[in-house]
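In this section we walk through a basic example: taking a raw amino acid sequence and producing a predicted 3D structure, encoded as discrete structure tokens. The instruction is simple. Fold the sequence below.
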Amino acid sequence: MAVKRMFLDPSRCIGCRACVAACRECDTHKGQSMIYIDYINRGNTVATSPSLCMHCEQPLAPCAQVCPAQAILVSPDGVVHQADESRCINSRNCVYVCPFGIPKFDTSGNYMRKCNLCYDRASIGKSPMCSSVCPTQAIFYGTYEEFMQAGRGDQGAKPVNVFYFGQQRLRTRNYVVMHEDDDALDLMALAAEASLGAVAQTPPSTLGEESAPWVDADAAGIPERVAPPRPWAPRTAPQAPTTPAPMQPGTPSTAPERVPTAP
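The resulting token sequence is shown next.
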């Protein structure tokens, strides 16, 4: 069965924040928005871009793998859920490890919260709240084939779900829509090449200063944690033992009749 995914197109975002308002209405979010609107370069442009959890597939959910309490779970359909409040121990490893900066630590509730694709809706075939209200389809929810059949491919859209952070490769469930023939995005290279917009003389990049080159885990002698073959599934609360109701007077007993034995 084809997997439905999010397609985020920054070129279509108009910054209306309808997605932010709708996200608060999701029953699993408890009135808090799990989507963010980022300003690309506020000093020179009003361009905005929606950001939400990318639900990493390869490697599988780094935020879940670094959680020492296994409070962040992945359902069998690949959706990475926010932290289970009853298990979160406030280590904030998930906040530090996410390359997209999505998980946020709720200081009032002492647990991590993030987008879970409106799981109360997505699990029964409905689209997440943010995509259902976006007036420009900057947030599109559907399969890759549905996205292309909607005419976006003819408009030059190039969905990308492979990202490089230096030598670290990451494939995500969700896509970022580009308009160039790029099979992957090297975010570290983009950061090094970023200019200051209206400033003609751009200072040299400081991205590589005071940083060691990337070393593979095998060469560094660091054991690599392998994701389990079956993703973690959401836990279910244990069922409380049932106690038989007290018998009413005059109610015949259902217990087997005791046969007297010979002395």
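Looking at the output, two observations stand out. The chain has a mean pLDDT of 78. The longest helix spans residues 144-152. In the next section we compare this with other chains.
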